């Protein structure tokens, strides 16, 4: 498939260039000429592809799509593809030279095709579409792009979405205060194991859980890692990038903490084999006292499920505990690692109409439609000025979740939600913003030659195997140095050097 795909992309690019030349148009960015070439008088058929998960999004004859069509003089052909097969679908369409006009694309595919003439460079036209730059931060545009071109529009991701919760009712029962430092965190987590916080007379609770991801990274552990000075994949020391896997001293502090917690039963004994669903089940079943959660789901999903077994349960946000040197960190992700891309090889006028559509969707009017849906269909305004969600077969606001949106932390909060709920979730998200844990090398690895030659997931998985053995007391602490050296020797050192060259050029 990969070879076929590569050949298809070359043919696609060649065909597009020849087509542009035959029309007397520049195959690259035509600047103001192309931007001014579409006066919106011509009806444009636009194919748009989006991943779909559990909920059903608006169909082509839905009120929302009809409103967009009328506003922009377009006819959207909206294609919802099951999320599990979405990336494969894009590969199949690329191989058959039938990519849609505009679609969402994941990081790996974006970086694989970015420089192969598949995506339109939108940067020369942004001055004509002010909402795109007003409502999406510059940092999101720069992610995965060089200085001179933007081959995709950021699909905004909330950088500080996840945070830790703690069972407040367990704290109160054991007469413990909210932990502020890592030492206090450990003491509370241990008490959750040894002092029967749920009062059932059984030793069936654990302090906290983490995950080992299939790609050789830690999950549910960001605040703990950051507290010990570890980088969020890439740290910055003396102006140079350092991989988390090579931070020997910081690793010894963090791994030593986990090693002790594992030995004393404070860390879930099943952490090596736990999946995200397993961790959530333990949360709902009242088996764990501290865990990473999504604030958007705590009150409407996690707490109701916990209360099925423990009606008096209370959850509270646990702010990141301070590490040995005072560092506090919350999980911090990229804002623009996923992109919305426009097919480079379609009519330039259609490209501009798509940009107009994206720009409109970020305007006040367009974003209200995109996020809230259609009044009278998705929600209604009541006599007292508040709003009520209406039952619909299709989820009108799903395009804002799965396709495109503003830099909006409140993307899952709506005018028809209970305002006390909105206030509490907003406070959780605002608290998260105070403890940024930057990834200084975000997106740079994929631009290196080393990344193309080594299997980074395999390298990280081998590294993690050694680290996990140390945590589980199956190897001595000295094994950390061996793991670091092996990671560097087998490709990490070259990757780090090349990333530092790119980082230096971008400053």
In short:
With 507 residues, the chain is an alpha+beta fold. It has helices at 2-22, 32-36, 63-72, 86-95, 107-113, 130-134, 138-142, 168-173, 182-194, 222-227, 248-263, 276-284, 295-309, 348-361, 364-372, 398-402, 419-432, 449-453, 456-471, 479-506, and strands spanning 44-52, 74-82, 102-105, 153-155, 163-167, 206-208, 211-212, 218-219, 234-237, 240-243, 288-293, 315-318, 338-342, 379-381, 387-389.
Q: Kindly estimate the percentage of residues that lie in beta strands according to DSSP.
A: 5-15%
Identify the CATH class of the largest domain. Alpha Beta
Percentage of residues in helical conformation: 40-55%
Total DSSP E strands: 15
Signal peptide: 1-20
Organism: Paenibacillus cremeus
Protein name: Extracellular solute-binding protein
Keywords: Signal
Any chance you could write out the topology, listing elements then pairs?
Elements: H1 2-22, H2 32-36, E1 44-52, H3 63-72, E2 74-82, H4 86-95, E3 102-105, H5 107-113, H6 130-134, H7 138-142, E4 153-155, E5 163-167, H8 168-173, H9 182-194, E6 206-208, E7 211-212, E8 218-219, H10 222-227, E9 234-237, E10 240-243, H11 248-263, H12 276-284, E11 288-293, H13 295-309, E12 315-318, E13 338-342, H14 348-361, H15 364-372, E14 379-381, E15 387-389, H16 398-402, H17 419-432, H18 449-453, H19 456-471, H20 479-506
Parallel strand pairs: 1-2, 1-3, 6-11
Antiparallel strand pairs: 3-13, 4-13, 5-11, 5-12, 7-8, 9-10, 14-15
Helix pairs in contact: 1-4, 19-20
């Amino acid at each position: 498939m990969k070879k076929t795909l590569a050949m298809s992309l070359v043919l696609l690019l060649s065909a597009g260039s020849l087509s542009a030349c035959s029309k007397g148009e520049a195959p690259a960015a035509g600047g103001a000429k192309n931007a001014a070439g579409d006066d919106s008088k011509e009806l444009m058929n636009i194919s748009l592809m989006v991943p779909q998960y559990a909920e059903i999004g608006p169909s082509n004859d839905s009120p929302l799509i009809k409103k967009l069509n009328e506003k922009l003089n377009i006819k959207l052909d909206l294609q919802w593809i099951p999320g599990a097969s979405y990336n494969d679908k894009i590969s199949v369409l690329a191989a058959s030279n039938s990519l849609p006009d505009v679609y969402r694309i994941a990081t790996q595919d974006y970086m694989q095709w970015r420089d192969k003439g598949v995506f339109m460079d939108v940067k020369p036209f942004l001055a004509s579409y002010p909402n795109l730059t007003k409502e999406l931060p510059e940092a999101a545009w720069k992610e995965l792009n060089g200085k001179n071109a933007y081959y995709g529009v950021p699909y905004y991701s909330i950088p500080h979405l996840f945070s830790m919760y703690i069972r407040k009712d367990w704290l109160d029962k054991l007469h413990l205060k909210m932990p502020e430092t890592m030492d206090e965190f450990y003491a509370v987590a241990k008490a959750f194991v040894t002092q029967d916080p749920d009062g059932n007379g059984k030793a069936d609770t654990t302090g906290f859980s983490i995950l080992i991801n299939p790609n050789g990274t830690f999950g549910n552990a960001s605040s703990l890692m950051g507290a010990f000075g570890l980088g969020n994949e890439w740290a910055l020391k003396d102006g140079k990038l350092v991989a988390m896997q090579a931070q020997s001293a910081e690793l010894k502090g963090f791994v030593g903490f986990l090693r002790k917690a594992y030995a004393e039963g404070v860390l879930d004994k099943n952490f090596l084999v736990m999946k995200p669903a397993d961790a959530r089940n333990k949360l709902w079943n009242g088996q764990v006292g501290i865990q990473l959660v999504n604030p958007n789901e705590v009150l409407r999903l996690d707490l109701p499920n916990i209360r099925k077994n423990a009606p008096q349960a209370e959850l509270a946000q646990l702010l990141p505990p301070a590490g040995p040197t005072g560092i506090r960190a919350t999980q911090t992700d990229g804002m623009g690692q996923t992109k919305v891309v426009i097919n480079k090889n379609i009519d330039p006028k259609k490209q501009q109409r798509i940009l107009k559509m994206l720009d409109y969707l970020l305007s006040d009017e367009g974003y209200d439609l995109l996020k809230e849906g259609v009044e009278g269909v998705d929600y209604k305004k009541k006599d007292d000025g508040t709003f009520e969600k209406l039952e619909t077969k299709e989820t009108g606001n799903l395009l804002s979740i799965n396709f495109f949106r503003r830099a909006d932390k409140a993307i899952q909060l709506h005018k028809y939600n209970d305002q006390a709920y909105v206030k509490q979730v907003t406070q959780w998200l605002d608290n998260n913003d105070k403890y940024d844990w930057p990834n200084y090398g975000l997106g740079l690895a994929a631009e290196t030659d080393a990344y193309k030659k080594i299997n980074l997931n395999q390298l990280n998985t081998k590294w993690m195997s050694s680290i996990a053995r140390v945590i589980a007391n199956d190897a001595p602490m000295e094994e950390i140095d061996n793991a670091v050296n092996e990671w560097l020797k087998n490709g990490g050192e070259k990757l780090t050097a090349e990333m530092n060259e790119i980082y230096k050029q971008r400053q």
